[in-house]
Specification:
With 586 residues, the chain is α/β, with parallel strands linked by helices. The chain contains 21 helices and ten strands.
């Protein structure tokens, strides 16, 4: 079932993001906030010092004011420097910890997502979430929070000072505040909407770039450079337009806000110079008030500007949380098998990748005895690969049951079930590590060098491994790029041999081998199949003629079952496929 993650408001997303701070990093966060408070307090303190400096030093020429105001000014800036350092360091420390935790959680989630999710979402989009989106969250977790807390405290402190100095002037200034609030609300909504579009466009850029990198040989040989360039240009242009809309919104909002604040300043000057006010306000008080009001410009400007970063961060956090909220593979089984005998049974199995697009398997009934080799054949799209992929629960069926040694596979834990199965596919996956580590991968990492060597020899891989300068310690490169196709295939077979699972899935297992290598590998695989249940998916019928049972599929249904000679004698669908391939071969 495809479970859609819930949509969350910006406030709820932000609270959820803060949940990564508390309770683990609350002490460091508290130090950062306290330091921000110190920094914020220095702004109204500086503005307040203008009154004693002018009234006391210049007007009244008070010796104490002349002596202590300069010292107080130095003290204010020392405190400001200490507060800036502590708040910046500890907030960044918390932010990077949160990003590390998020990335670790996302990577762990990647390993447990159902296969269907990878079918629907491109690897470029996933990489964009793990790399780009999380970095955008870093902006919200450090820069935005710093500005929001420090500048909000600064604004509160300055307003408190302004009310203390003159309530009438402050109330006059506040007439303009609703207009500023309306701008901030509108800009916030637009920033978030544009930020979400930017996240999506970055995923498109990543996906297009990744396809070009992975398919560069096909692009070159088929002259696809112009097509790929045109396609990337469209995606890149969409990304540019979204960024420019974001830039225009930001560029308009800042001067507009500053213009409104400047209007408020002009209004204050006009009111303060009325005859009634001149009698009750001193020069020092007026300058102190004007200083506080002018000091409001920078924090207000930053609060308006940081809104873009904040909305980007919230949009990125929403993307990250939607990914994390996607359901993992269903693993509700409680039973464990030490080692299965290898009896497999399909009972009334029906399956659809997307229920709205119809079923791809219809009423499959099949019994496979322990140790049997069963081959699945049929045209592309007949359902043979899907049927086999249901056994290790890469997908979960909608109807029917699949049994392993009489146990419904859904009653077994995923780890226990998959421990019973080895896989060799035509699409070989090798990791950027040594040959030895690729053979003894995952749960096989405790294998001894002797075990690894025996598996490599059985797969006829040892002959080319010994010719390499570093032998089993030779790096294979990214996805085995330093090896030939046949060599990569033999390492995959060696990995399956080393696992020694009671059930073996061979998906076009010899398709990448030359004729001589295939002959040796086929002999090794036949030896491996002894006393082992083997499911073979193959288009080349010559490779499965000795199978104990051949299952012929078409349109998601089993239409024929039997041995090779029996099916040929029946002169049915299999016989026509065989004749077609034989004629093509000759």
């Amino acid at each position: 079932m495809n479970e859609q993650p819930r949509r969350e408001t910006g406030t709820r997303i932000y609270r959820r993001l803060l949940g990564y701070v508390f309770p683990t990093y609350w002490k460091a966060f508290a130090v950062a906030v306290a330091a921000m408070g110190i920094t914020a307090a220095t702004e109204p303190a500086f503005a307040w010092l203008m009154r004693p400096m002018l009234d006391g030093s210049f007007v009244e020429q008070d010796p104490n004011a002349i002596r202590y105001v300069p010292i107080a000014l130095i003290g204010v800036f020392v405190l400001r420097g200490i507060g800036e350092f502590l708040s910046t360091f500890w907030m960044k420390w918390v932010a990077r910890r949160v990003i590390k935790d998020l990335r670790s959680q996302m990577f762990s989630h990647l390993l447990r997502l159902p296969t269907g999710y990878y079918d629907r979402v491109s690897s470029g989009q996933l990489l964009s979430k793990v790399i780009y989106d999380v970095e955008q969250v870093a902006g919200a977790a450090s820069n935005a929070i710093t500005v929001l807390i420090k500048d909000t405290l600064t604004v509160i402190g300055l307003f408190a000072l302004m009310f203390y100095l003159s309530t009438r002037l402050t109330l006059t200034f506040l007439i303009i505040a609703p207009f500023m609030a309306l701008i901030v609300v509108y800009v916030s909504r637009r920033f978030r909407r544009l930020s979400k579009r930017i996240q999506a466009s970055m995923g498109g850029v990543s996906h297009a770039s990744e396809e070009v990198i992975e398919g560069q040989r096909v692009i070159k040989i088929f002259g696809g450079q112009r097509h790929e360039s045109d396609q990337f240009e469209r995606i890149n242009e969409q990304n540019r337009r979204q960024h420019m809309k974001h830039t225009v919104t930001n560029a308009i909002s800042v001067p507009l806000t500053q213009f409104i604040v400047a209007g408020a300043v002009a209004l204050i000057v006009f009111v303060a110079t009325r005859p009634g006010m001149l009698e009750v306000i001193t020069v020092g008080t007026f300058v102190s008030f004007m200083t506080a009001m002018l000091l409001l410009m920078q924090p207000v400007r930053r609060l308006t500007t940081i809104n873009a970063t904040l909305q980007q961060g919230i949009a990125a956090a929403q993307s990250v949380f939607e990914f994390l909220d996607h359901h993992q593979e269903v693993d509700t089984g409680t039973k464990r098998l030490a080692r299965a005998r290898g009896e497999v049974e399909y009972r009334g199995v029906e399956f659809a990748y997307d229920p709205d697009k119809g079923k791809v398997l219809h009423g499959i009934d099949l019994h496979i005895r322990p140790g049997q080799t069963v081959a699945f054949v049929g045209r592309s799209g007949s359902g043979k690969s899907t049927l086999v992929n249901l056994l290790p629960r890469f997908y979960d069926l909608q109807q029917g049951r699949i049994l392993l040694d009489g146990h419904d596979v859904r009653e077994l834990t995923l780890a226990s079930l998959r421990q019973q199965i080895a896989l060799v596919s035509q699409h070989v996956t090798l990791f950027n590590d040594t040959i030895a580590h690729n053979i003894a991968y995952g749960s096989l990492e405790r294998a001894t060098p002797a075990d690894i060597e025996r598996a490599a020899e059985a797969a006829h891989a040892l002959e080319f491994i010994r010719r390499l300068p570093e032998g089993l310690d030779t790096p294979v490169g990214e996805n085995g790029v330093l090896l030939s196709g046949g060599q990569r295939q033999r390492l995959a077979i060696a990995r399956a041999l080393l696992k020694d699972a009671p059930v073996l899935i061979l998906d076009e297992a010899t398709s990448a081998l030359d004729t001589e290598s295939e002959r040796y590998i086929q002999a090794g695989l036949e030896a491996l199949m002894q006393n082992r249940t083997t499911l073979v998916i193959a288009h080349r019928l010559s490779t499965i003629e000795r199978a104990d049972q051949i299952v012929v599929m078409d349109g998601g249904r089993i239409i024929e079952v039997g041995r090779h000679d029996e099916l040929l004698a029946a002169d049915g669908y299999y016989a026509r496929l065989h004749a077609m391939q034989f004629n093509e071969a000759t």
